[in-house]
Amino acid sequence: MTNEIWHKCEVPYTRYEVSNQGRVRNAHTGLVLRPRKVSHGYRKVTLFYKGQQKHCYVHNLVATAFVEGWREGLEVNHKNGVKTDNRAENLEWVTASENQQHARDVLLIDVKPVALLDERDHLQWLFNSAEACKRAMGGNVRESLRKKHRYHGYRPRYISVPMYREIVHLVNVHHYTLHSAWIEACALSADESPSGGSKRCARSNGSNGSMQQSCGSNGSMQQSCGSNGNHNY
Questions:
Q1: Does 217 or 192 have the greater pLDDT score?
Q2: Among 51, 76, 105, residue at a domain's last position
Q3: Where are the beta strands (DSSP E) in 108-223?
């Protein structure tokens, strides 16, 4: 893993090291610990000292070692909302109220992300809400969703917030194509089941609460942008 930096964990668990990429290892053997997923989607590892064990959140270990700004009473926040993404650059120290505001603005509390699929069930557009979809494309997407009608030629559907975050994470961090990220996220969700397949696409973040493949000015992610001067993939 490139550019991975290791620091010792705090006393008394100095036999362990944590990296800026969110991994924890035994400093003596080099063995990387396998984190387990616990309630609310976070990851924990178990550290041992003189026969005693301690279950530690990975994001706390990483933030303590690499993220500046700690003071008493602060909490660790995942900037992109993906609780398994424990890279130091994705973590920050915030107050409880800031964490709650972030949950509303970034974690999409009380909103429903929208996916637009083509006739092959390939993901073409992804928005973090129906309002963002309406702003970008016009028309009444909520009506199309309610009546299960086509919307600008696509089949609109609501998806879960965790699934939306997973797709964004796979595309932006792991460089998945848009539809490949859709397939992977569906495989992790018992509620979603596309037909499969993949297409190449580029990644860019937008500014209005959605994602776009290569026409990033409207803040959406699209499969391709045609002949408007941007690249097709």
A1: 192
A2: 105
A3: 114-117, 123-127, 155-158, 204-205, 210-212, 221-222
DSSP state of 88: G
pLDDT at 197 over 70: no
Domain count, the chain: 2
Q: Is residue 19 packed enough to be buried (19+ CB in 10 Å), middle (13-18) or exposed (0-12)?
A: buried
One domain, residues 98 and 135: no
Sign of CA dihedral 81, 85, 91, 96: positive
**pLDDT number for residue 149:** 96
C-alpha closest to that of 21 among 47, 57, 58: 58
Rounded (5°) CA angle 6-8-10: 140
pLDDT score recorded for residue 178: 86
- Residue closest to 118 by CA, chosen among 177, 197, 211, 218: 197
